[in-house]
Amino acid sequence: MVNLHLNGEPREVAAGEVAALVAELHIDPRTVLIEHNGRALHRREWPETPLANGDQIEMLRVVAGG
Fold first, then answer.
1. Which of 32, 48, 57, 65 is 20 to 30 Å from 38 by CA-CA measure?
2. Residues 5-32, buried b or exposed e (16+ Cβ, 10 A)?
């Protein structure tokens, strides 16, 4: 288990990397932008970006409007 901060809230997750976190949270990867420890990630980086205790993750949902 990994203890991190997700959108400012403490959270314990089983995921070992960002792509697995998105799957664990049941989020459609096409609808979210992710920042890992202050750095915006490209979706292609998610599988290779490991999670560690204390990481800061910000997830922003992309919503179309009009």
1. 65
2. ebeeeeeebebebbbbbbeeeeeeeeee
To which H or E segment does residue 41 belong? Answer: strand 39-41
> Could you read off the pLDDT of 7-65 as tens digits, one per residue?
999 999 999 999 999 999 999 999 999 999 999 999 999 999 999 999 999 999 988 77
The residues with which 6 forms a beta bridge, in sequence order, are 9, 57
Full set of structural domains in the chain with CATH? 2-60 (3.10.20.30)
CA distance linking residue 6 with residue 4, whole number of Å: 6
Measured between alpha carbons, how far is 12 from 30 in angstroms, rounded to an integer?
24
